[in-house]
Amino acid sequence: MSQKLTSRSEDYSKWYNELVNKADLAEHSDVRGCMIIKPYGYAIWEKMRDVLDVKFKETGHQNAYFPLFIPKSYLSKEASHVEGFAKECAVVTHYRLMNAPDGSGVVVDPSAKLEEELIIRPTSETIIWNSYKNWIQSYRDLPILINQWANVVRWEMRTRLFLRTTEFLWQEGHTAHATKQEAMDEADQMLHVYADFAENYMAMPVLLGRKTESERFAGAEDTLCIEALMQDGKALQAGTSHFLGQNFAKAFDVKFADKEGKLDHVWATSWGVSTRLMGALIMTHSDDEGLVLPPSLAPIQVVGIPIYRNDDELNAISDKFITLGKSLKSLGISFKFDNDDNRRQGWKFAEYESKGVPIRLAMGPRDLENGNVELARRDLKTKEIVAFDGIESMIQQVLAAIQQNLLQRSKDFRTNNTFIVDTYEEFKEKIDAGGFFMAHWDGTNETEEKIKNETQATIRCIPLDFVNEEGKCMVTGAPSKGRVVFAKAY
Amino acid sequence: MSQKLTSRSEDYSKWYNELVNKADLAEHSDVRGCMIIKPYGYAIWEKMRDVLDVKFKETGHQNAYFPLFIPKSYLSKEASHVEGFAKECAVVTHYRLMNAPDGSGVVVDPSAKLEEELIIRPTSETIIWNSYKNWIQSYRDLPILINQWANVVRWEMRTRLFLRTTEFLWQEGHTAHATKQEAMDEADQMLHVYADFAENYMAMPVLLGRKTESERFAGAEDTLCIEALMQDGKALQAGTSHFLGQNFAKAFDVKFADKEGKLDHVWATSWGVSTRLMGALIMTHSDDEGLVLPPSLAPIQVVGIPIYRNDDELNAISDKFITLGKSLKSLGISFKFDNDDNRRQGWKFAEYESKGVPIRLAMGPRDLENGNVELARRDLKTKEIVAFDGIESMIQQVLAAIQQNLLQRSKDFRTNNTFIVDTYEEFKEKIDAGGFFMAHWDGTNETEEKIKNETQATIRCIPLDFVNEEGKCMVTGAPSKGRVVFAKAY
Questions:
Q1: DSSP letters for A155-218
Q2: How many Cβ atoms are within 10 Å of A7's Cβ, its own excluded?
Q3: Measured between alpha carbons, how far is B195 from A335 in angstroms, rounded to an integer?
Q4: Chain A contacts of B87, Cβ < 8 Å?
Q5: Contact list, A98 vs chain B (CB under 8 Å)
Q6: Residue A272 to residue A237: CA distance in whole angstroms
């Protein structure tokens, strides 16, 4: 635990892996590409989930649960969808094991072969639209506004904890509407819910935009996204919201009768964020000492550590901290008093630093005598001696200040790493150092593909606040109506 | 929606299926044995989950998440465990689909065969203990108190919504301890957490007991359980808590060093409840009109229905109900005002009755004039005209009374359907009519098996409050130290 992390400047990727391990967030399982989310990591995910869940319900959505298994034939019903997902799925072919005839253990029972193979859901559009077909007859049944919290599986070849794993946890909203406009508004609304969550809880500024055709979700007519910039200058897609048009309604024959009795296919959206957000959170704020958490999502917001030489001192300090814990609890602030006698103070300081606890309080005999406590801020690594009495309101202020500072710091970082470039030469020269690059593009797949092949950079999005600006594509010189955002990405 | 349910007395099983459908709780999916939990059903499950989650955390547990997939070889490591679970599992053998050469759709890509097949978890002891191996070195690492909310799959041949489905949702606690006593205490503690939840939230009285050897969890040394009695006289196992001894620690070689440095295997428990509780909740309280919900778990506790002939009347009534909704919200009471103009009052009355909403308020022009409202209780099907002013405190009292009444009613039912029998003749005569039967048993597997074969009744549990009473086994006449509980069961 006392081992130092590799620094970000030395090896960002190594730093990330070590940090996830040191802060006890997650680990690889023996199952290829599947992670174990450890209690501390899961507690952060729970906080994210709870905040998002409230926002979904406030916008009229209800939770439900659909099967893990998708019949193979469902995937094929939407042509582009199967193209996008068939290549990376786990396939269930049998439903029983039996003792091996040679006594060597258990083997698949060949007689228990499924007539039709089942796919572990990589996303649930198909199984859900197959159900909606029975739920929707008339305009009175619309809209359907459903969300599901679930695990999904995509067979990834290269995996990284939280960022890309074979199994991951997510939520997926699936809505059905009577009109195109309403579905488009829903997709837009949910994108803004995500953006609000990213900024105001994760303290992570995001660009709002739409994907180019080649980067769209398989089966969508329009994919909206939020894009964040990590400290190494790489972009991370943090959430997507899809306008699906009538594609899935057509594939699953879902029609409704309008007020005049006229039949039409239903309009759809889907939208999701996943445990990938954990990776985004880690990489946005953390430093060479470990995790840095915004107070809004910290499972422990304040930790109290006693410094003592004997039981009398410990008891006196404990009294203070236990009383403080109660009053913080009544203010909705989570406090942990760590009086574990098996661990030394230095170990504890390092431990909570690496776990990103926003405020650390330490009290020794002299502090006790003087009515003081030491307050350390994780974000700035500052500490000061302050009066213990009335510290509750100071803690509230400091937590708010940390939340604010983290957001401002990441906004500043993004500002300092967003570049306007006009020539492909300049682009190629600068792209490796990272950042968002605002450049003119001729709007063709060919140019996008060429840039990707030559630089590994992709168009992250066409910004929602796209500014009309006459220009010339940096590659082909063809006319362009405005700049799009390029970056290398996770 | 207006169709009446089959009555319980006519066909209990049909009544159950129709009720689950009519109350919009769940439905079968096209995937064999897998259910879709619809928003209203899921909202009840969410409430259950949230209450239990708080109780788990209050008793020191943390949530985490382990992989969906279990390597086939893990299952074999604990001998009795594999016997219990290998026969009913979903097996993943491939990780990719490809376009069929004949263009007919997608088929399994034969080149993407897994070296070792993966099992969809039927329960997670093996994958979790394989991880604990790396987490535990010394007594300082103990206890580990972890819970997981997850989906699991058991390939059931006969399925019923909520009661027995191929995929279901559950929580599974997995704890590791330094001593046998501590693990046994943990198993006992969690059983009491379940019993408290069943009684005080589900309003469902339960017997606490232990399973006989033949009914134990595969891999457990002792299985504790809570058993409830449904209205048709059949028992339902509502939760189990297992003392696993050192079985899994030995299978996965998990040892710890005690304070003296001596190595020993770790002691374990696991415990779980599932969406099966939804079935128990439905069958404990509901009646021929539909679902009856205890207020503690009702997503909507109070519904307000306006009765009006024109917009002026609707507006005046709406004002009243909207104001009431706000004050109920501040009291933590969930209220729905149903002003849907597309539905008639009679339809609404039937709808909320079938959905088990505990209190229905209806207000018409005359009520408005007189300052009254009609209050109907779902449990007793009574209604009365009461003064609207100050109705909040009355609602609080009525909700508490409903909760209390439902518990008392199901306790009385159980009392009236618990029988002491001394002869196998009497047992066989009465068992088909249902109920708990307290009888002497000689303690052998053979006798238990004989009774099961001849009557389909099983020993539900040996009660924790087992009374020492000399007697003779009702079947063999061999001596017995006390009575155990028999019933036919779900």
A1: --SS-BTTTB-SEEEEEEEEEEESSHHHHHHHHHHHHHHHHHHHHHTS----EEEE--GGGS-T
A2: 13
A3: 31
A4: 96-98
A5: 86-87
A6: 11
What is the domain partition of chain A in residue ranges? Answer: 12-90+121-285, 300-398, 418-487
Which residues contact residue A192 at a Cβ distance below 8 angstroms, ignoring those fewer than 6 apart?
Answer: A208
The alpha-carbon gap from A168 to the nearest alpha carbon of chain B, in Å, equals: 9
**CB spacing of A127 vs B72 below 8 angstroms:** no
Whether the pLDDT of residue B46 is over 80: the answer is yes
Contact by Cβ (8 Å): A61, A145: yes
Contact call for B89 and A70, based on CB within 8 A: no
Closest partner residue to B151 (CB to CB) among A68, A90, A119 is A68
Task: Please list every residue in chain A whose beta carbon sits closer than 8 Å to the beta carbon of residue B66.
Answer: 29, 36
Q: Does B418 touch chain A (CB under 8 A)?
A: no
Give pLDDT, residue B2.
54
- C-alpha to C-alpha distance for A74 and A82, rounded to whole angstroms: 9
Query: Over the stretch A237-274, which tens digit does the pLDDT of each residue have?
Result: 999 999 999 999 999 999 999 999 999 999 999 999 99
Q: How many residues does chain A have?
A: 490
Query: Which tens digit of pLDDT belongs to each residue from B286-309?
Result: 999 999 999 999 999 999 999 999
CA distance linking residue B167 with residue B121, whole number of Å: 10
| Arch. (CATH architecture) of A418-487 | 2-Layer Sandwich (3.30)
The verdict on a CB contact (< 8 Å) between A127 and B29 is yes
Q: For residue A369, give both structure tokens.
A: 């005598």
Nearest to B2 by CA among B358, B351, B287: B351
Please give the Cα distance from A424 to A439 (Å, whole number): 9
Check CB contact of A94 with chain B, cutoff 8 Å.
yes
What was the ipTM of the complex prediction? 0.96
Q: How far apart are CA B345 and CA B348, in angstroms?
A: 5
**CB atoms near residue A351 (< 10 Å):** 21
B69-124 pLDDT, tens digit each:
999 999 888 878 788 887 889 999 999 999 888 877 889 999 999 999 999 999 99
Closest by Cβ to B167, choosing from A67, A91, A106: A67
| 3-state DSSP assignment of residue A120 | strand
pLDDT at res. B99: 87
Q: Does A42 touch chain B (CB under 8 A)?
A: yes
Helices of type H across B164-271: 180-200, 247-251
Please write the tens of the pLDDT for every residue from A363-418.
999 999 999 999 999 999 999 999 999 999 999 999 999 999 999 999 999 999 99
> Which structure tokens are listed for A111?
């007689």
Average confidence (pLDDT) over B351-362: 98
* Cβ within 8 Å, pair B36-A65: yes
- Residue in chain B lying closest to A24 (CA): B135
β-partners of residue A439 are A484
Minimum distance, in Å, between the CA of residue B101 and any CA atom of chain A? 14
- Do the domains spanning A12-90+121-285 and A300-398 agree at the CATH topology level? no
State the best of A48, A97, A134 to mutate against chain B, taking most chain B CBs within 10 Å: A97
CATH architecture of the region B12-89+122-285? 2-Layer Sandwich (3.30)
Q: Which of A64, A106, A119 faces B72 most closely, judged by CB atoms?
A: A106
Superfamily of domain A300-398: Anticodon-binding domain (3.40.50.800)
Which CATH class name applies to B295-409? alpha beta
Question: Does the pTM of the predicted model rise above 0.95?
Answer: yes
CATH superfamily of A12-90+121-285: Bira Bifunctional Protein; Domain 2 (3.30.930.10)
Assess B144–A contact: CB distance below 8 Å, yes or no: no
Q: Which of A46, A69, A129 should be substituted to probe chain B, the one whose Cβ sees the most B Cβ atoms within 10 Å?
A: A69
Contact by Cβ (8 Å): A287, A335: no
A-B contacts (CB, under 8 Å): 179
Instruction: Return the half-sphere exposure (C-beta side, CA atoms, 13 A cut-off) of residue A396.
Output: 10
